[in-house]
Amino acid sequence: MNDQTGRIGEIDWKRLSSEAGWTLLPLRAFLAVVFLDGGVSKVADSRFLDDSSPVSMHAQVLAVKAHSPIGSLLTPAADHSFAFGVVMAVGELAVGIGLLLGLWTRLAAVGAMVLALSLWLTVSWGADPWFTSADLVYLFALTPLLLAGAGGVLSVDAWLARAVTMHPGRSEDRTRRALVTGAAGVAGLVVLGAASLTRRSASHGVLASDGSGRAAAPSTGSPATPSPAGSATAGQGAHTVAKTADVPVGGGKEVKDPVSGDPAWVLQLESGAFTAFSAVCPHQGCAVNFESARDGFACPCHGSRFSATGELRRGPATRGLTPIAVHAADGVVTLG
Fold first, then answer.
1. What is the C-alpha separation between 92 and 196, in angstroms, rounded?
2. What is the pLDDT of residues 248-291, one digit of tens each?
3. Given 47, 153, 204, 228, which residue has the most CB atoms within 10 angstroms?
4. Cα dist. 37→59, 133, 152, 243, 320 in Å?
5. Where are the domains of the chain?
6. Is the pLDDT of residue 247 over 50?
7. Pair 103, 184: CB distance under 8 Å
8. Do the Cβ atoms of 87 and 96 come closer than 8 Å?
9. β-pairing, 332-335 with 326-329?
10. What gap in Å lies between CA 300 and CA 261, rounded to an integer?
């Protein structure tokens, strides 16, 4: 027993910590790049903070509010989406810098986990099956960094710890950490400034990979057949959802599917020709927004895009929007 105890006491914890650091280094580097890219791309894309854009922070909140388990708490984020969007972008950039440098690593991991948890409870809540949510995976992927920190490898935290050992002094330690943190903050502001200078305007349309403008991939379901006003007969289970005058020619109107209770879009791309689609994105259940007859639909949560006829243009969704039977007669539009 004593011999075993002695051997346990002789464990080289410093060596084990170093080995853990090298093991965690690929994970730390990957997560740093992910959060840096997330923060920079939000600032660089003018649509993210533009409430009028169908792929903005505002649109994302509205798209997930009804189905999120914390939907009742999202009202402030919807009302002040610009401020919340800036905070999210700065937070992601700060987390990325912290993980990349190994500076305040555990604190950075906590911040990243809060962001991942909030995204899981909102934009990724509709993942089916639930364990396919990327944000849930990120949440658990961050736990090793929360428990072990940077592990003493290629880390500012480790360098500061060695400096304290060589030159002890509490005030001196605080000064070093404050200076390094300030330098990292300045670097972050420079990155944000550079990103803001490259802000791109909202995209008008998405071309297929061959540049033809056709849908990159067809929907697995057939597009809904246009129903000329006054010529279609509504079925027995049809429900009135709008007046024909409320659906502009060349545009659409968001309504509620009376059968499923989910949001839906009724379109009148040509005068008298009505179509309807479920607004639920087949990727993870966010509500898509209709932009125009040319640009089609856009999912504000993960960037999937669909043509005005419901066909898939760009993933991560793997199929098009679900068509809904629509009828227009006597000045009203019915679904079902």
1. 15
2. 999 999 998 888 888 899 999 999 899 999 998 988 888 899 99
3. 47
4. 21, 19, 25, 45, 28
5. 9-197, 227-335
6. yes
7. yes
8. no
9. antiparallel
10. 20
Residues with Cβ within 8 Å of residue 296, at least 6 apart in sequence: 206, 290, 305, 306, 307, 308, 309, 313
What angle separates helix 134-141 from helix 105-120, to the nearest 10 degrees? Answer: 160
Q: Give the 3-state secondary structure of residue 334.
A: strand
**pTM of this structure:** 0.68
The strand order across the sheet containing 263-270 reads 227-228, 273-278, 263-270, 251-256
**Fold assignment, 227-335:** Rieske Iron-sulfur Protein (2.102.10)
Rounded CA gap, 148 and 152, in Å? 9
Q: Any idea which residue has 């243009």 for tokens? A: 313
| 214 has a pLDDT exceeding 70 | no
Q: What is the pLDDT of residues 71-95, one digit of tens each?
A: 889 999 989 999 999 999 999 999 9
Burial of 90 (0-12, 13-18, 19+ CB in 10 A): middle
Cβ within 8 Å of residue 263, ≥6 positions away? 66, 254, 255, 256, 257, 278, 279, 280, 287
Encoding tokens for residue 149? 């920190």
